[in-house]
Amino acid sequence: MNTSPRSAARPSTDRATSTALSQEQTAGAAINDPFLWLEEIEGQGALAWARAENEKTLGVLQSDPRYRCFYEQALSILQAKDRIA
Question: Rounded to an integer, what distance in angstroms lies between the CA atom of residue 24 and that of residue 39?
């Protein structure tokens, strides 16, 4: 399981615009940015990547025996009626 940021740079067939978005002009010189497609925050490729990363992360978090207690504490704080708005 590769969770490094480099895994985000892997080309995907569902990103039709990845080639067009992978270059950026800076001071007249083209710069190849393998992560530029992630800036298209509502793009299918970026959303699919984020969902996959979230799924992996949630699995790791939920496998920790402390997860349920932390989750309940956070939920209690979030739902507290006496919290400062």
Answer: 12
